[in-house]
Amino acid sequence: MHVGILGGTGPAGSGLAARLASVGVEVTIGSRSAERAQQTCATVKQRWPDLDLALDGADNEAASQAELVVVATPWDAVTSMAAALADHLEDKVIISMANAIAMVGTELQPLIPPRGSMAAALQAVLPTSLVAGAFHHLPARSLAALDHPVDSDVMICSDHLAAIQATSNLVELVPDLRPIDAGSLSSAAAIEAFTAVLLQVNRRYRSHATIRLRGVKTGAKGVGGGLAGVETEGHQ
Ligand SMILES: NC(=O)c1ccc[n+]([C@@H]2O[C@H](COP(=O)([O-])OP(=O)(O)OC[C@H]3O[C@@H](n4cnc5c(N)ncnc54)[C@H](OP(=O)(O)O)[C@@H]3O)[C@@H](O)[C@H]2O)c1
Fold it and tell me: Count of CB atoms within 10 A of residue 29's CB?
């Protein structure tokens, strides 16, 4: 599996890159500057010299040619960047982890982007891609701390069952992450907006809390068993 991460030089993208590479995924960190991406890559590798991380750095265009692509830019850059790379993103699973959030005074507040969520906005500019929303609630710092497990459920939503399945398969590679099929892209607005609440709670309690849904039986580890019986309503 080869994953490209657009905007992968930031804390979220580089943290996810490190975590995925630590479980054997080949990852290309993308950036507007190939040099910056290579520097980020070197920094991650230097932090974990004993791990043989299959990471490289390139410009966003090169990263967009990976088998599966994650969008990890600030929310207001997502659609313009995706539109510029649309030719490379056609017919592929594209995961959006972007949250539209603004600091208002001392509070982090969710914004309502066009189409209600960043994942839906991304799907609109990439009509032939299979867009999924995922990884919104995972703190970058926890993703990057490879000496600790990331203990969380990952809420995944998409209008395409194939995208839910591919994203779930990726999530399942990481121990202690459990993929949850959260439905169609109509769920993305609530999932993304909840990130602001989680960040606010983490600021208040100086914590790195993630989310765990109790009472969801998804099979041995994650969605594998669950997806087999999942309703296809809302998915194509
Ligand atoms: N931080 C977290 O804990 C976390 C967790 C889950 C999800 N998220 C979401 O993940 C996304 C990235 O978060 P982050 O904290 O890593 O953000 P960030 O550091 O602000 O941005 C990530 C990267 O995006 C690129 N970028 C910035 N402005 C751009 C523009 N106008 N056009 C194209 N690329 C641009 C930059 O890379 P180059 O300059 O190298 O191109 C930057 O390093 C956000 O949408 C956030 O809501 C964050």
Answer: 33
Written as one letter, the residue type at 115 is: R
Q: Where are the domains of the chain?
A: 2-228
Of 174, 23, 1, 13, residue with least CA distance to 92: 1
Class of domain 2-228: alpha beta
The model's pLDDT over 221-231, given as tens digits with 9 standing for 90+, comes to 445 444 433 44
> 0.85 exceeded by the pTM?
yes
Report the candidate in 26, 31, 5 with the shortest Cα–Cα distance to residue 16.
5
DSSP code for 73: S
Phi, psi of 179 (to 5 degrees): -75, 140
Q: Which residues sit with their C-beta closer than 6 Å to ligand 1?
A: 7, 9-13, 31-33, 36, 72-75, 77, 81, 97-99, 135-136, 138-140
Q: Going by CA atoms, what residue is nearest to atom 4 of ligand 1?
A: 12
